[in-house]
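ARCHIVE CARD
Drawer: 12
Card no.: 0347
Subject: one protein chain, sequence and derived structure
Cross-reference: see card 0346
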Amino acid sequence: MGLFVDTVSTDVPIPELGIILVHPTTNYDLEGKFDAREIRDAVSLTTAITGGTLYWKKTSGGTILVGTDYDPDIAMVDEANLGTGYQGDRAVTFKDLTGENLTGASPGFTFGRSGNVTNAYLQNESVPSNTVGRLIMLDNAKINTIAIANEDVSTFDVKIYEHDGVTFTLKSTQTVTSSKTKLVEDLAIALTKGKMMAVEITNGAAKNPLVTVIVKGDT
């Protein structure tokens, strides 16, 4: 990443950096002469670029970029805005890098039931999850990981629903085949804030099953 500027038609003072760019100046290497924090805090530099009295480029002699797309954090790699447009408040920058703001995550909602379980709902604490399930409390919630364990080598299906106590929507079916465990990661199964999750064992039997569902979303 670099930051090079050209004057457009007149001298451009940047008092925060203690310089005046005398016209014509071409390919002035700001990042090579100042650190990232100085560049970020140089308000007159940002104003000159976004206002069109300085052209900016990422490489010497490269393409002139749109002024309003300039980000004062350009030189701070860990904070760089990879989208377009100037953002005045840079308090949260991880969102720029991922496209999502996954600031909240459950430690894992675990559903279980003692004994041999077949064609039955697992419990949320001591209550059947189809009666009162785990409440989804995050915005933009998504199931990220499903972890399944049971005592015996077994074959069965695990079905995960969201519901409001009346209407049930199937969100995922995971099949355990001749195994005691199954782990499924990097999912992105959307859930609805304010609804509940329920977990059901079907198409087989599981002994003392535990199903943990990790949900990520915005707090």
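Annotation on reverse: The CA atoms of residues 57 and 65 lie 6 Å apart. Residues 104-218 form a domain with the Jelly Rolls fold (CATH 2.60.120).
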